[in-house]
Amino acid sequence: MPYADLDLEAGRKNGTVWVKLPNRHFDPEKGHQLYNRYLDELEYGETLGFDVLAVNEHHQTAYGLMPSPIVTASALARRTSKCRIAILGSALPLRSHPMTVAEEHAMIDVISGGRLISGFVRGIGAEYHTFGVNPTFSHERFHEAHDLIVRAWTEPGPFAFHGRHYKVQYANLWPRPYQKPHPPIWIPSQGSKETIDWAAHPDHRYTYLQTFSPAKVVQRYLNMYRDTCAGYGYEAKDSQLGWAVPVYVSSSDEKAREEAKSHFEAFRNIFVKMPLEMLLPPGYTSRESLKSVMKAKAQMFGDVSIDQALELGLFVCGSPATVRKSFEAYRKEMRFGNLLVMCQFATLPADLTRRNMELFAREVMPALKAL
Amino acid sequence: MKFEHGFVEVDGCRTSLRRGGSGEPLLFLHGASDAPVILPFMEMLAQRFEVLVPEHPGYGLSQEPKWLVNIHDVAYFYLDFLEKLNLENAVIVGSSMGGWIAMEMAVRNTSRIKSLTLASPAGISAPGIEPADIFLMPPEELVRNLFHDQRLAEQRLAEPMTLEALDIVLKNRHTTARLAWEPRLHDPFLPEWLHRIDVPVKIVWGREDRILPVGFVEHYKKLIPHAEVVILPDCGHLPHAEKPEQFVEIVCR
Predict the structure, then answer these.
(1) Distance, CA of B197 to CA of B29 (rounded, Å)
(2) B69, B162, B170, best to mutate vs chain A, most A CBs in 10 Å
(3) Could you report the predicted ipTM of this complex, rounded to two decimals?
(4) Which of the residues A235, A252, A280, B187 has an alpha carbon 20 to 30 A from that of B88?
């Protein structure tokens, strides 16, 4: 849900649209139009037959206008009737009180009659700068908040919870979630061994969703998830694996590439861009991962053209036949049970977004669902 | 003057310690980005003191103990350190975060402390004065902002970055974040108790400090009225490294 009206030159000059891009660049009048446009597009997703409408959380950035996915998901809960609504996810460590997440997700689950998919994330590094939450406690807070939320959803209340970061004398959730034992939990991640170990653990078996990575990297992490499950002594179901990727479909490969080029490149080279220190504050990742990122710095932090992105499988774009074939091949290699297509990105305008959704839903999706 | 490097175990933490010179004990508490090396001012001080230069828990070659959660843990650790090494009448010299640790120690217990010299100490917040964001600064910019004299920055930047050195840089940054990310570089409860410091205090600040602006000095004057304050012209965040002769003279006088 980007601020598509962004002055791209301002974003580029600032080096990033995260944390410190002055908010005078946000125009509430344009914001009003955009929010309603995006909500209409999400609702249109149900009409077109998508199974799930997914929203996410990012703070103080032109990259996304959903500091609270709860607000978006709530609106969707009332305006849709069949689709599942996925919050991917709530950034647990950034909340001062995880009970608020347990409550809000339970409300949406009850209002929607059990259509909620709950996602939990840690928030990205930039958000530890904006919120001031100590990144060296990120993992601890995430795990503790998760434990409290799941207990609040499932255990008879009231009970007391004495964590290191969160303390509740009376955990006694009203409303309890609609789904039993609780809404499914998905874990979006850019790939980390620690997250995979945790999500794959037999106590969790949460759907692991690899987001915005080159296809080879997606495959590596999905395999790592399967292997981790095998190490725990069970076989991962395909439904435990997911891939989230930007997609653009048009009448021909050439047309798709031409129409998507400036919007995709704005997405990759302006909207998601940020310096290393912002992306990975100390403690957010292990020092070993930090070192490997530093080694790959030129590749990760430099600009990527649409052609490089297509080559890497960072982006799937083309005619319906091309996109269908790409996903059929990827599905064969990776055996993901969930595919999240990001049909709008950066500055992609409303008409192209709708046509993209329509072509994907009518000419690509049926074949993939049949697999 | 020869410094010897060894390890001492305090509170279950194997702690890197360099010692040199003889005389009254002087404990130097380093800041967030100090290199674990013997600097000229230490050599000078070692003419007159027995200089002890530990690396804080979580920094350099010292271990990262499980109990290390906030700055108070480091303060209690160093009070135990003074006891364990049976140091008495210790002159404590602290730079930046080290100055903060020195104050946190002294509000708790000064029975083994003779005096404090604080070089651009972190530790308090002051309305209208914002420390530089050391966590958002690229490493090179951070080094440049430490010094007024850019030749010193160039020298530091020219030091080769080995893999071992990189490990230590990342470890130090991690511990600094743990201790000082939020609240940023200060303890909101410290000012209330600074009146408990009952030993002589000297505060030295570089006038051109680009990490912790010299404006903090006015607040320290109110919070520690008995402190002697010296502002050094043409000097950045590390007076001990940038103006070693003047700094040593201030410590010794």
Answers:
(1) 17
(2) B170
(3) 0.94
(4) B187
